[in-house]
Amino acid sequence: MQNRRQFIKSSGKASIAIATLPIISKMSPATSVMASEYQQQPLPYAYAALEPAIDALTMEIHYTKHAATYAKNLADACVAEKVDSTITSLTDLLKNISHYSPKMRNNAGGHYNHELFWQLMKPTPAKAPTGALAEAITKTFGSLDAFKTTFGDAAKARFGSGWAWLLVKSDGSLAVSSTPNQDNPLMDMAETKGTPIVGLDVWEHAYYLKYQNKRPDYINAWWNLVNWEFAQKKYAEAITKK
Ligand code: MN
User: Fold this and answer.
1) Which pLDDT does position 27 carry in this prediction?
2) pLDDT at 22
3) DSSP calls for 188-222
4) Residue 126 alpha carbon to ligand 1 centre in Å
5) What domains are defined for the chain?
6) Quick check: 26 pLDDT over 80?
7) Over the stretch 84-95, which tens digit does the pLDDT of each residue have?
8) Distance from C-alpha of 207 to C-alpha of 215, rounded to nearest angstrom
9) Contact in structure between 151 and 218 (CB atoms under 8 Å)
10) Mean pLDDT value across the chain
11) Cα 90–94–98 angle (5° rounding)?
12) Measured in angstroms, how far is the CA atom of residue 183 from the centroid of ligand 1?
């Protein structure tokens, strides 16, 4: 009898969905968490919840069109390139992304980045981080305001579409970087590699309806939405894993 992997290998794309179905129901909680990372999750607030900094129509189009498309194209690329989301975590896929197609790179990055971005914003958040993240930011950049300037400069200087990041490098230190398109610091070709803690989408689709060409105004308004509690959680996880 063929095992599942041999069956998938020998039976072509059309059979993969059918072959996968009975397996999903037998997944352990750990593997189902991994598989859900590949799917778009519900937005944690209403489209209008981040106004006035981000308007409801921008949020709705961003979530239901742009981000939803990355998730769908990621699923298609996983079928085409035989990535099993119950076996390979999204993080591990991104860390080896140079071995996959541009479609996989753009959409795995696009999906990961947006899922993180939604969580990193909330209506009326704390004004500043506390605890270990606050200490690390002060130690690295001098102050929270100095960090915001460095991060904002990276976001403004990104030519065309991309992201600005606060990340934890493999030695545990903090750094600011920016990446083009839907790349991120987890990717093996990233100039500055590490675990993203805070990310800002500076694609025009994220701000053009309200801010038009004024990216700096969008960046300044966005600081009022940063979910520092979530960033603190990401930082604690990154430091523990390193
Ligand atoms: Mn976006």
Assistant:
1) 53
2) 39
3) TT-SS-SEEEEEEE-SGGGTHHHHTT-HHHHHHHH
4) 24
5) 54-242 (3.55.40.20)
6) no
7) 999 999 999 999
8) 7
9) no
10) 90
11) 145
12) 12
